[in-house]
Amino acid sequence: MGFLKVDNVKISGIVSAVPEKVVKNMDLDLFANQQEAEKFISITGIEEKRHANIDVCTSDLCFHAAEELISKLNWNKEEIDILILVTQTPDYVVPNTSIILQDRLGLPKTCICFDVPLGCSGYVYGLSIISQFLQNGSFNKGILLVGDTLSKQCSSLDKSTYPLFGDAGCATALEFNRGSEMRFNLWSDGSGYNSIIVPDGGYRNPLAEKSLLQEADSSGNVRSKINTYMNGTEVFSFGISEVPKEIKKFMTHFDINVADVDFAIFHQANKFMNEMIRKKIGLSKEQVPYSLHKFGNTSSATIPLTISTLDDSVKNRNILMCGFGVGLSIGIVQTQIEEDFINVLLEV
Amino acid sequence: MEDFLDAFVEILDDTDRSILLAETIYKDLDEWDSMTALMLIAMFDEKYEKKITGNDIKEATTLNDLYLIALK
Lengths: 348, 72
Hints:
The complex is a heterodimer. Chain A has one domain: Thiolase/Chalcone synthase (Peroxisomal Thiolase, Chain A, domain 1, 3-Layer(aba) Sandwich). Chain A is of the alpha/beta class. In chain A, helix 5 runs parallel beside helix 6. Helix content of chain A is 26%, strand content 28%. In chain A, strands 1, 4, 5, 6, 7, 12, 13, 14 and 15 form a nine-stranded mixed sheet that branches. By secondary structure, chain B is an all-alpha fold. Chain B is built from four helices and no strands. The radius of gyration of chain B is 11 Å and the shape is globular. Chain B starts with a helix and ends with a helix.
């Protein structure tokens, strides 16, 4: 059982940074006709997303988000004890991007920095890691950065990925705070590792000339072996079966009633799938906000980005968050957002 | 089977129920695409409480093949 309770840590604020460039799915040549594009939008809910310019990395979006967050919270950078970056689109294969950001953000050399290469579930895993560093009070303040620039990893000729994914980088501040609670359920199923995969470029299939060849699959989607491949039907099947099951187990384990949840923030993958999950848990539409119509699937950033679209309405609220996808992996957390919570959505 | 075909036509927008038969090769229907596949998975989940996988869909050719999965 992946249940975990962390005491004395609160989420103090979130700043989400999205690129200015808007890409509308109705405008993509990828769809055969307007009807096909309309059907895609009506099922996935994704009308548009943001794309970073060619010279903008995930770390750049996260850098701006972190600077704004530290400034809004009026934190002294010397007090930041830990910085974690959750991303699948780092600056380099080696070294970890979070360490580069330590220097760029002017954080002290005593700051613990490392990357976590998770995707859709990564925000919750990041919260679980950082909160455990902070829970006994030896460390006081931490920053969790999450995000991806998947527009660069997906083939623009692949309907199964390109219209879904957008770019974003979010910074979340956590600090030691006596009395606060975070409850987690973490779940993994590696048998589905190839449901979402970039096949080449690691050490199982090292980058070779053939990795770059663009090939059409049986559905006519064209991609190379260094592009993201997603088996949408497998992921959908996983999403509507395992995710509600794990949320229900989590709520039973921690004795959380559906009515106790003010907002359930789900990973923004596909509205049709998320609505099925919502109904299975018995949550109302008002309890489950969406941001995917504007920003698409931004991987580990979808949960904080959705929170950032809610402005002050999340203050003093009981929030359940659930990330799920690549791995396959699920992360669920529940916590209370306080009155002094900082919440900003930034265009960079 | 008729009940299954009634449910199947519900996931389509413009296809006439009368052309759906047990031997229909459903992937040849004009409307069949990856989005319809998601709706099929949802239909199996809601109506039959069955988990149908991407591989099941890949291997099933006719509507009868799908119906047999629903009966399992």
